[in-house]
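During the no-cost extension, the postdoctoral fellow (Dr. R.K.) reprocessed legacy sequence entries with the updated structure-token encoder. One reprocessed record is reproduced below for audit purposes.
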Amino acid sequence: MYCKNCAKEIDDRAAICPHCGVSQAAAPQVIDNGGFGWGLLGCCIPVAGLILFLVWKDTKPRTSKAAGIGALVGIGSTALLYGLAFGMGILGAAGSMGF
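Re-encoded structure tokens follow.
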């Protein structure tokens, strides 16, 4: 058998290459199926969605994207609601002053 890293011949039962020290075990499979739940979490708690996006962007790109989109939707909808409330407040104040 040959080392995955340095390509030198090593014992078939070797768990670690004696030449370069790299483990010969197979890397664990990462399940990355996206997920509506992570998007919903990002929408409800945008800071959590942003953090999850940044943490998972390299290891779980689909799940990271769902959390990031959820965070953007949460921030956008909050900004829209604040804008509507501000506009209604301005219109209400203008109406009470006789404009």
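The first helix runs from residue 36 to 44. Residues 1-30 form one domain. The remaining legacy entries will be reprocessed before the final report is submitted.
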